[in-house]
Write a structure and sequence with these properties.
By secondary structure, this protein is mostly helical. 83% of the residues lie in helices and 0% in strands. The longest helix is centred in the middle third of the chain and has 33 residues. The chain is globular.
């Protein structure tokens, strides 16, 4: 459970960064757009997204033991929960699911999670000054 929590926190940080980069690529680069997109999505993903990701994965495991069906159903639940806030959460939910699945094989410890969170805090402090 702790390993999954570490992975999901790191996936949240990375998926918010990736989604913010995708957003500024589509809409044109703006420091304010990037920072606002990143931090607003970060707040949603850390609070709501990680919790619903646990639920989505749990529901996927309950539906089927077959990996293919389990992953598709988990993805569908991620999208369902992501549709709650439409623009603010559907895209990040899809990106979060992909990043989370890519991190499954990675060995993630609390040190890497804490460093990533410290970088987020440092960027936030720098951006408000």
């Amino acid at each position: 459970m702790v390993i999954i929590l570490q992975r999901k926190i790191l996936a949240a940080i990375l998926s918010c960064l990736l989604y913010a980069l995708i957003t500024v690529f589509i809409w044109g680069f703006s420091k304010n757009l990037f920072l606002n997109t990143y931090f607003i999505n970060f707040i949603f993903v850390i609070t709501y997204g990680i919790m619903t990701s646990f639920i989505s994965d749990w529901l996927g495991r309950r539906i089927s033991k077959k990996m293919y069906v389990r992953e598709i159903s988990s993805f569908a639940f991620h999208c369902f929960f992501g549709m709650i806030f439409i623009f603010l959460s559907l895209g990040p939910a899809i990106v979060f699911f992909i990043v989370d699945r890519l991190l499954i094989k990675a060995k993630i410890g609390w040190l890497s999670v804490i460093i990533a969170l410290l970088i987020v805090v440092l960027v936030f402090i720098i951006s408000i000054t």
